[in-house]
Design goal:
The complex is a heterodimer of chains A (393) and B (309). Chain A is 73% helix and 0% strand. With 393 residues, chain A is an all-alpha fold. Chain A has two domains: 153 residues, no CATH class; 216 residues, MetI-like (MetI-like fold), CATH 1.10.3720. Chain A is flat, with a radius of gyration of 28 Å. Chain B is mainly alpha-helical and 309 residues long. Chain B has a single domain, classed as MetI-like (MetI-like fold), CATH 1.10.3720.10. Chain B has 14 helices and four strands. In chain B, the strands form two sheets. A two-stranded antiparallel sheet of chain B has the order 1-2. Chain B has a two-stranded antiparallel sheet with strand order 3-4. In chain B, helix 2 packs across helix 14. The longest helix of chain B is centred in the first third of the chain and has 36 residues. The chains are: A mainly alpha (393), B mainly alpha (309).
Chain lengths: 393, 309
């Protein structure tokens, strides 16, 4: 048995294994080292409390980070060694004729991890930079160019974009409007706009889809075709006339203006109708025989059965309004901080602090982190909902 | 019977009414309103009510406006590099993931994640990565090469030739996970027996990829081309965030923005108060979009019987 499995030693294959092993060591050590350091950094930044004077912050956290070096470096080294031992053990235990498959797998994993690093690097860099003290945003640690996690983390950037640092608070009594222009306000505005819009869109779209799927109406098919035809029109087309209409209705600069023209979601009707077509009519008839009114049939039978797809539409609409930058930009009244949403606020902010990387990055976190967390919990709905239309074809 | 049916109609109408009201007011009416507005010029007093009637002037202006035709060319260029590289990146990721792997769903989600994040914010982050002097790329290249390298002095976004590809790279990395999920679903539907038959015929991996996998993935590729064209025509946020239409360059005696795509040019006209002209441009864009979609469908129809073989 053993004789067979160690029978042929191909030097080429061993060389490839060595190269892959070396790549694995460097990838694993750098990636896990940075991740562990990042965790240590976040804990330090929050544990260091509330250093009021900006100068006191970094020095204090730098000391704590120094003491944590053995912990995060040690963890990375242990993980790397464990992985190397596992890889070698697996390689030896694999039968000679299956070793090329094993090497292929190893290469696959390495390529995938590198791919993930490339795709997610901008966001990791954003998180790291947002904890860096002002003036130290330089990515390069001269001793180790792969080390981008700050060694002297501070929460100052977040305090500044929330305008709860000393200087802003001192100014607040003189200029309360200016103080209101912070990313906490923008975040709440975006949350309110996106949630309201998503709720109304899903409500109206599910009511409409119910009619198209289950009920009788003269010219139903023709109306549905008309709806689908408007999906071909690029969104840019509507910018000018919708802007005029919203202004003439007197909504300019209000939160209503942010989503009102986008409440009629043809995509939503289409998606919900596709799903409702699969609900058997007998269920509706049974409810009607039991004496349910039209609204009760809709509420008690349709909504619960179509709930997964309704939730999907809710999340996708929320996302659309969270990132609906162009429209929100043109209907924003910049004098009124209550009408500024996150993307518009960031565009405005970036104009003021062009090269303050730490500030811009911590402002970006307010848009990215909540959505990333939401995605973590509801990824199935996002992925299936967004790709559904395409797969149908 | 007639009473029941009219009752049914009334209920249906009531259910559909809120949606249809919004639909007619905000999606149907604007199509005509936009046409009406396209016969007007700029406001005479910065209000929206006193627009100057100019007749067909706006449409005449479009045909002589070099900036507009240039922006269409930039849009075409954007599509020509973004669509193939987007398809290639998505397909590469899908081929990597289309294996029996531990943690497959983790990789799938990780690649998909940038898709759900706000385009403007992603654009801003990439701008800072590309930025000369203090950006990530500038600092990495300075560390490994001299301070005098291209990434540190001009930056990718600072040169007319590299600005658009740099924007495309950022958008491809953001969007690759979407195409990847589509390709993965399609790859799973290809029966294993097709490849086994090819093995018997002595086909190598390269031949199997080009002769079996790619033709069977054609519907997804066509879909990605269509969405890519619409994406290029609607491109605005990424340009606004990353280049503001610049850097400027001189083409045929006119100063034009080297990344000023049609959507961005439309916004610029709107921002400067040329509302009527902006409406006329959006009509032109509508005609172009419908034309391209029609053409693509014709090509897809003609190709379909051959591709299915």
């Amino acid at each position: 048995m053993t004789g067979q499995s160690h029978g042929t030693m191909s030097p080429v294959r061993v060389a490839i294994f060595m190269v892959l092993l070396a790549a694995m060591i460097s990838i694993c050590y750098v990636v896990s080292g940075q991740l562990f350091k990042f965790a240590a950094m976040v804990i330090t930044a929050f544990a260091a409390g509330d250093p009021v004077a900006p100068a006191a912050g970094p020095a204090q956290t730098a000391d704590m980070m120094n003491r944590l070096i053995p912990v995060y470096n040690g963890l990375a080294i242990i993980l790397t060694i464990a992985l190397v031992m596992l890889a070698v053990k697996w390689y030896i235990n694999t039968r000679a004729e299956e070793r090329s498959t094993f090497l292929k797998k190893m290469f696959l994993y390495e390529a995938l991890v590198v791919g993930v690093v490339v795709v997610l690097f901008p966001f990791f860099w954003m998180l790291c930079t947002s904890f860096k003290p002002s003036g130290q945003e330089l990515i390069i640690n001269k001793a180790n160019p792969f080390d981008i996690v700050p060694s002297e983390p501070t929460l100052m950037n977040f305090k500044k974009v929330l305008k709860i640092d000393e200087a802003s608070i001192a100014q607040a009594s003189q200029d309360p409007i200016e103080q209101k222009k912070n990313f906490g306000t923008y975040f709440l505005n975006s949350l309110l706009v996106a949630t309201t819009a998503a709720f109304l869109v899903t409500l109206f779209a599910s009511m409409g889809a119910y009619v198209f799927s289950k009920k009788e109406l003269p010219y139903k098919q023709q109306i549905f075709m008309l709806l689908l035809a408007t999906m071909m029109i690029p969104g840019m087309m509507f910018m000018v006339p919708q802007f005029f209409m919203v202004c003439q209705m007197g909504f300019f600069g209000t939160k209503w203006a942010m989503f009102l023209p986008h409440l009629a979601s043809v995509f939503g009707i289409f998606m919900l109708k596709q799903f409702m077509d699969t609900i058997p009519n007998s269920l509706l008839e049974a409810a009607q025989i039991d004496g349910a009114s039209e609204w009760q049939v809709f509420r008690v039978v349709i909504i619960p059965l179509a709930f997964p797809i309704i939730l999907t539409l809710f999340l996708l609409t929320f996302l659309f309004h969270w990132s609906n930058f162009l429209w929100q930009l043109i209907v924003t009244n910049f004098e009124n901080p209550l009408s500024i949403t996150l993307p518009v606020g960031l565009a405005l902010f970036r104009g003021q602090y062009t090269s303050e990387l730490g500030l811009i990055m911590s402002a970006s976190c307010f848009s990215i982190v909540p959505i990333a967390v939401l995605f973590l919990f509801a990824q199935r709905y996002f992925i299936e909902g967004m790709t559904q239309g395409a797969v149908k074809e | 019977m007639a009473i029941k049916s009219s009752k049914e109609t009334a209920a249906s109408a009531a259910f559909l009414a809120p949606f249809m009201l919004l639909f007619v007011v905000f999606l149907i009416f604007p199509i005509f309103y936009s046409f009406y507005l396209s016969f007007f010029g700029s406001p005479t007093d910065y209000s929206l009510t006193n627009l100057e009637f100019v007749g067909l002037q706006n449409y005449k202006k479009i045909f002589t406006d070099f900036q507009f035709w240039w922006s269409l060319m930039v849009t075409a260029f954007y599509g020509v590099i973004a669509i193939p590289s987007g398809i290639a990146a998505s397909l590469a990721l899908a081929m990597l993931l289309h294996n029996k792997l531990f943690g497959k769903s983790f990789f799938r989600s990780a690649f998909f994640l940038p898709n759900v994040l706000d385009m403007l914010v992603v654009g801003v982050i990439w701008t800072l990565i590309y930025a000369p002097k203090f950006g990530a790329l500038a600092q990495i290249t300075t560390f490994f090469f001299s301070e005098d390298n291209f990434f540190n002095t001009t930056g990718l976004l600072g040169h007319p030739l590299t600005a658009l590809p740099a924007v495309v790279l950022a958008m491809v990395l953001k969007g690759a996970g979407f195409g990847m999920v589509l390709f993965l679903a399609a790859l799973q539907n290809i029966p294993e027996t097709v490849y086994e038959a090819a093995d018997i015929d002595g086909a190598n991996e390269w031949q199997k990829f080009w002769k079996i996998t790619v033709p069977l993935l054609q519907p997804i590729i066509v879909f990605m081309c269509i969405t890519g064209v619409i994406g290029a025509l609607n491109a605005f946020t990424e340009i606004y965030a990353m280049t503001s239409g610049g850097p400027q360059q001189v083409v045929m005696g006119e100063t034009v923005g080297s990344t000023s795509v049609a959507g961005y040019y439309l916004y610029k006209q709107f921002e400067s108060g040329n509302y009527g002209y902006a409406a006329a441009i959006s009509y032109m864009l509508l005609i172009i979009t419908l034309g391209i979609t029609w053409l693509q469908q014709r090509i897809a129809e003609r190709k379909a019987p051959g591709g299915a073989k």
